[in-house]
Write a structure and sequence with these properties.
Strand content: 5-15%
Number of helices: 16
Number of domains: 2
Number of strands: 8
Oligomer: single chain
Helix content: 40-55%
Length: 463
Amino acid sequence: MTGGPAKTAPKHGGQVPPLRPDRGPRGRIGWVVAGSLATGFVCALLLAAAPFIPATENGVTGAVLLDFGLGWAMLAVLSARFTDQPQRWAAVPALFMGAGGLLLMVFGSSARVVLDWVWPPALLVLAVWMVLRIHRQLPSRSARWLLYPLIAFLTLVAIGGSYAAVGAAVDASAYPMPGQLIDVGGHRLHLHCTGSGSPTVVLQPGGGEMSSNLGWIAPAVAQSTRVCVYDRAGRGWSEPADTRQDGTQIATELHTLLQNARVPGPYVLAGHSFGGYYTLIFAALYPDEVAGMVLVDSSDSSPAVNPGSASPGAVGSYDVLGRVAALVSIAGRFGLARLYAPVEAGSLPPRARDEVRASIATANSLRSTIDEYVQANASGQEATSMRDFGDKPLIVLTAGVGVAAAHPAAQDHLATLSANSLHRTIDGAEHEGLVATQEGASATTRAILDVVESVRSGVPLAK
């Protein structure tokens, strides 16, 4: 008697073939991770470039953080909606970065003070927590390796941010402010005056520099008359400014600083490098308050090719360079400037050298310096507003080595601004050496005191 239908022998040696894994929802997680991160990155660039976002470090940084938060939020939502590997933990970094971005955009510099201390350690804790979540909830190896490099970067940012904040606090304790902070409208500038007598000498440091860069000159001048040094916004002990810092703004703020600090004129102004721009602009704006000038290898300026054109950051123009500068200056918040600072200012007196290095190491100084170079063309054009210094004493100092071929002629032109002027070329001195080395600084000090004596006596400068 026969049974039911014959059974077909199984293939593959009697073994049931393995089922192929479902590549559907599970296979999409890598694309979701990549797409979310890429979207956050692209949106960060677009929002940072948007005209309605202010071209300031706080505005640009806030916009970038908001969009990075958007990328993490997309990962949380899309992974839960389209895959079987929901990554709901991503809502935490989304909230963390979004909140930081909003605080910066709404409260600006006041929020920055808190974030500089709170954000780095909180970010480090968050990065460790994220690694644990990924290890437990994200089986996809490819998706993990998309996230791990990003988290490693966040870890470095957290460590660098903590290093910058702690280092700045240590420097602030080691190098207390020698002068006073004076409000000039929205922010305060550092001013330090020493010595006694008239006229008062006001020193302008060069591009990217601070009052301590004049550590050889100020004490020497103070032996003969009153001398004031100050820090431009964001430099040294001065607070950063949210306003555009071109030459006219800098000269106006210096005038407000001197008036609010009750430092009466007449002034002998001495400006090194970019400081020459600001000296010329100040003299053009306030001619009755300036008795003499010394231009210490001043940066060259020439009449504007198109005076009606908008300069970087001008009202109504799109400030591309300002936005790029804001993005670059964010690196200072990660402690990168502290790695560069020790190589600077090696020829100054020890105390001044250390104060300069402490200033260079700050993110505010980096941002201020970048902005100063962004505004250099505008400042140079504005400096040409000084066309006639009458017969007031003027000495133009020029470095003897390391100068461009056209530089001596430009310096000769500066000497024609006054009928009572001298042009001295300091043989063997480089541009920075006129303030940074003891020998070069002595030549600069001598020129300043010669102008002071001419103002006091009314006798023209000796040829």
